[in-house]
Each structure stands twice: as C-alpha cells, then as structure tokens.
Design brief:
Layout (H helix, E strand, L loop, with lengths): L4 H21 L6 H12 L7 H7 L4 H13 L3 E5 L7 E5 L1 H7 L4 H12 L4 H17 L14 E2 L10 E3 L4 E3 L1 H4 L12
Antiparallel strand pairs: 1-2, 3-4, 4-5
Helix pairs in contact: 3-4
Bound molecules: iron/sulfur cluster.
Iron/sulfur cluster binds next to loops.
Length: about 190
C-alpha cells in the first residue's frame, strides 16, 4: 500500500496517543475495555445501549462485550434492564458510581492536551479526525454511529413547544434536544 510520509507520520502519532491514553487507564480500578464501555454508554442514546450495539461500536465480539458488561455490573458501574422497545433483549444504563468515575476519566487529560496544543481551535483537527474515521469505517464495512442532527432519518422541530421537539422517522420515536446530540447505532449520515 502506498501512502505519503506525512500520512504515515500522522498514523504513528494517533497510535502513540492511543497508547499513552491506554497507559493512564491502567492506573485506575477499571481496565481499558471497561472504560471503553462506560464511555460509549455515556454517549449512547436510548436505542443504542444493547450489548450488540456496544460490540458494533467497539469493533469487538459480543462475547467479549458481554463479559465486560457482566464485570461492570458486578462492580456496580452499570445496571441491566429489559429493553423498552424489545422485551427479548436487554439494555444497560450507567449507575451513579459510573457517572462519578467518568468525571475523572483519564481521557480528559488527553482532551486537555488537545486544548492546549491547539490553543482551543479544535475545529480543523476535529474535521480531519471525523473524515479519517469515516474512511476507516467504510474500509471495515462498519456502522457509522453518530448523532441525530446529522442523520437522514432526523426530523427537526416538528413539535416546537414540546420537551421532545424532534422526531426519528426510522424508529417513529420522539426525540429530545439531548438525544439529538447522543450517539445512535441506527444513524445513517444525511447526504452532504
Ligand atoms: S434520527 Fe437517526 S440517529 Fe436519531 S434516533 Fe433516529 S436513526 Fe438514530
């Protein structure tokens, strides 16, 4: 495969940053796989908290994710509930203990590094990373995952005075402003 030296250098930098972030995670009560699941659940909307969705997002196997969820449950970081949309499946929610842990997430240190290195001008970096992620997802034939506002099924402000002003045309469900910004397993990017 032929790539430019600059692109290869960028890939090395991302890989090194990822390793440094992982190293910080080893110092806590939670291991890296458990941090990954907690972070995903913190960002996922109510349609996307099933073990299958977690496994898809993390590009992991369902067996591995199920073991991680069981371990988090036994430590008191997540609770298991019957799915409100499909009684045959389960979904997970963060406990207060998990929310407290996420306030000292080691990834915040990397976010701080980014803030300082860019002087707060993160937009270009974000754009480049998002485009890179889209390429990687396409190469791996993975699901996009993303927020409602950029989804082709999103219908904005159809109930302006309601607490759930938006609507999902795919799932036929009302959506709040907060859900509009959350990560969804069913998201399909709107045409650019
Ligand atoms: S509008 Fe798209 S992203 Fe939002 S809930 Fe529906 S499918 Fe998911």
């Amino acid at each position: 495969m032929s790539v430019t030296p600059e692109a290869l250098e960028a890939a090395h930098l991302i890989d090194r940053l990822e390793r440094l972030a992982r190293f910080a995670e080893q110092t806590d009560r939670l291991n890296p796989a458990q941090w990954d699941v907690l972070r995903y659940l913190a960002r996922a909307n109510r349609f996307s908290r099933t073990p299958a969705a977690v496994a898809d997002y993390l590009a992991s196997t369902r067996g591995t994710v199920s073991r991680t969820l069981a371990s988090l449950e036994s430590k008191g970081y997540v609770s298991r509930n019957q799915s409100s949309r499909d009684g045959r499946s389960v979904e997970f929610a963060l406990t207060q203990q998990a929310e407290k842990a996420l306030r000292r997430d080691p990834l915040l240190a990397l976010a701080k590094d980014i803030e300082q290195a860019t002087g707060g001008n993160v937009a270009d970096l974000l754009d480049g990373l998002r485009r890179t992620l889209r390429e990687a997802i396409g190469r791996n034939h993975g699901r996009a995952f993303g927020a409602c506002f950029s989804c082709r099924h999103f219908r904005a402000d159809i109930r302006p005075s309601s607490r759930t002003p938006h609507h999902c045309a795919l799932l036929n469900e009302p959506l709040s402003e907060l859900e509009n910004l959350s990560t969804c397993v069913e998201q399909e990017p709107a045409a650019a």
